[in-house]
Specification:
The complex is a heterodimer of chains A (334) and B (247).
Chain A lengths: L1 H16 L2 H15 L2 H14 L9 H16 L3 H4 L18 H16 L1 H20 L10 H19 L11 H6 L4 H23 L9 H24 L21 H24 L2 H16 L2 H24 L2
Chain B lengths: L1 E10 L2 E11 L4 E5 L6 H8 L7 E6 L2 E2 L10 E4 L11 H11 L4 H9 L2 H4 L15 H13 L5 E5 L7 H17 L3 E5 L3 H7 L2 E6 L2 E7 L4 H15 L1 H5 L6
Parallel strand pairs in B: 3-8, 3-9, 6-7, 7-8
Antiparallel strand pairs in B: 1-2, 1-4, 4-5, 9-10
The chains are: A mainly alpha (334), B alpha/beta (247).
Chain lengths: 334, 247
């Protein structure tokens, strides 16, 4: 227990400045989940039963991790020495985004926001970690494969993790300079369009990575594609629409590692709105016909809604105008 | 030009802005002065449609700011650091602003070259994000991003605050040159009466959300304004209680 306590503290402190520690932690957990630990631990337990003096060895790991924690704290008392503020910052330009005009410029702006700020960057890495968790949970065990329904659930979660957490606060991420954005030469429709574009890029990137799932279970390929289409056609407009109700500013510098992250009732109904409908559609068609019909229904729903993307952008723009002053006022409050 | 008609903003039934009519013509630098809480920043936010007006309208070059977005194409403003994306380098922000306003990279570089004295080798090629710059340098970034566009309407809220004396002087010259070169309307607020009277052709004195004096700048304007604020201080309850023998 002490070992877990000090180990978690150390990983948490490290991941504040380097989120890859969090990814490595999740990766190791997945590895431990997949390895035959039961055989190893039961063999070790019986060996210790016959050699009781070996129990003294269990004192050393927590003591060692405690000393590592202590040394880390003593060596890093000054924030600026570990924050990386003194590193020379290179200029990054994304010329290929300019084909989309002002919306493309805003996509580049948000892309840099995600990569250069702890909070959104951690969300991105966390969503990759959730992708890996889904792989671990759906891994065939003892010759049993998971059911179509359960596998589809994992595919929906794997594909939608980033959108679920990031999408609902689509405007709040830029709350620290929202006044400046609204006073700049940016038409609101272009701003909303840029949100659709950035979510599309991230959803597509997540889908492409998640296709590796197919190496473990080929059934995942059509399921992931159906979930991706649903994200593009339905979840992105829903996320953007829900974001117009978000008046709370977002702190870009705050990490989310091991923190609850301020979940509110508003967040809860947004997560429900994003994650429940595809599964309801699946269950309805799976019950009426068969499970694969449910998967196809979700994909077709997303594909059809994708044809109405321009209409959704107009709708979200109109909703934004209706609540614009509330959003601006809310973001100004610290 | 900037036109205000019956513009009122109330918070909890208390008017914080109440301007019946105000017209600021192009080619004129107008200064806005007033004590803290007079409503200067709120007025700027109303002009930029960042706050909903309770009544009335604000027009920039004839465009109602609350009804259209076309005014954004010829208006540039910097109020405070909440206008700046802190995670960009200054160069990235300048190029971003330039591309939003159809300026090429070369055009932006040319405009920035004229501001080298203003930057004092601390902005360009600093290798820092805007959030890691000092407050004064952040203000320089915001102001420079406005000036490189050569806008028809320019709004700056306390641009001299946080700037060192040399930079203040350079900014005065840059604003004078901008006003002389193009027919634009410049509206700035400041607590520095020396700069305001030295730079502005017209000065508006604001108190409790209303324009109480509208002065065409003359030789004695600085004295007039200084006298007004001294009178305000003498008449305030805080000043009365701080007099010896009043406790």
């Amino acid at each position: 227990m002490l070992l877990n306590h000090f180990l978690i503290l150390y990983i948490k402190r490290r991941s504040i400045f380097n989120p890859w520690w969090l990814v490595a932690f999740v990766g190791v957990n997945i590895l431990l989940f997949l390895l035959p630990l039961r055989t190893v631990s039961s063999g070790g337990f019986f060996y210790i039963l016959h050699h009781p003096w070996l129990t003294l060895a269990f004192i050393f790991p927590p003591a060692l991790v405690y000393l590592v924690n202590r040394r880390f704290l003593l060596n890093n008392l000054y924030f600026e020495e570990i924050s990386g503020r003194d590193r020379y910052k290179q200029i990054a330009e994304y010329g290929w985004l300019r084909r989309w005009g002002v919306a493309g410029e805003l996509v580049g702006l948000e892309y840099r926001l995600i990569l250069r700020n702890r909070n959104p960057r951690t969300y991105l890495l966390f969503s990759l970690a959730i992708l890996a968790y889904c792989v671990a949970w759906s891994w065939p065990h003892d010759g049993h494969t998971v059911s179509v329904g359960m596998l589809f659930f994992y595919c929906i979660v794997a594909n939608g993790a980033f959108l679920i957490r990031y999408g609902g606060e689509a405007f709040a991420w830029q709350s620290s300079y929202f006044d400046g954005l609204n006073a700049s030469n940016i038409q609101t429709r272009d701003y909303v369009r840029s949100k659709f574009y950035i979510f599309t890029i991230i959803a597509t990137g997540t889908w492409l990575i998640s296709l590796l799932y197919g190496l473990l279970d080929a059934r995942a390929l059509p399921m992931l594609t159906a979930a991706w289409l649903y994200n593009l056609g339905c979840n992105i407009p829903v996320a953007a629409w829900c974001a117009t109700f978000g008046y709370k500013p977002m702190d870009l510098g705050k990490g989310i590692g091991f923190n609850y992250g301020g979940m509110t009732a508003a967040n809860s109904w947004y997560i429900t709105l994003i994650s429940l409908p595809p599964y309801l559609i699946y269950m309805a068609f799976a019950w009426l016909f068969q499970p694969w019909a449910g998967v196809a229904a979700v994909g077709i729903t997303g594909g059809v809604c994708l044809l109405f993307r321009r209409w959704f952008i107009t709708l979200v723009t109109r909703e934004f105008f209706q609540r614009k002053y509330l959003i601006l006022k809310g973001f100004r409050e610290k | 030009m900037i036109l205000i008609n019956n513009l009122v903003k109330t918070y909890n039934s208390r008017p914080v802005i109440d301007i019946r009519h105000l017209s600021i013509e192009s080619g004129v630098i107008t200064g806005l002065v007033g004590n803290n809480g007079a409503g200067k920043t709120t007025l700027f936010r109303l002009l930029l449609d960042l706050v909903r007006a309770s009544e009335g309208e604000a027009l920039l070059q004839g465009q109602d700011v609350a009804m259209t977005e076309t005014w954004k194409g010829f208006t540039a403003a910097y109020l405070d650091e909440t206008f700046l994306p802190g995670y960009l380098t200054p160069e990235e922000y300048f190029y971003f602003t330039g591309r939003l306003n159809r300026l090429s990279k070369a055009g932006v570089d040319e405009a920035l070259a004229t501001m080298s004295a203003f930057f004092n080798d601390e902005i360009l090629d600093s290798g820092k994000y805007i959030r890691d710059l000092s407050k004064g340098n952040q203000a320089k970034v915001g102001i420079a991003a406005c000036l490189l566009r050569k806008p028809e309407v320019l709004i700056l809220d306390e641009p001299f605050a946080n700037l060192d004396p040399s930079s203040q002087h350079i900014l005065v010259e840059m604003l004078r040159q901008l006003s002389a070169d193009s027919r634009n309307a410049i509206l700035i607020s400041s607590h520095d009466l020396n700069h305001i009277t030295g730079l502005c052709h017209r000065i508006l004195l604001m108190e409790r959300g209303a324009i109480i004096k509208d002065i065409d700048t003359a030789a004695d304007t600085l004295q007039e304004l200084a006298g007004y604020f001294r009178t305000k201080l003498a008449a305030s309850p805080a000043a009365a209680s701080s007099q010896p023998g009043t406790r």
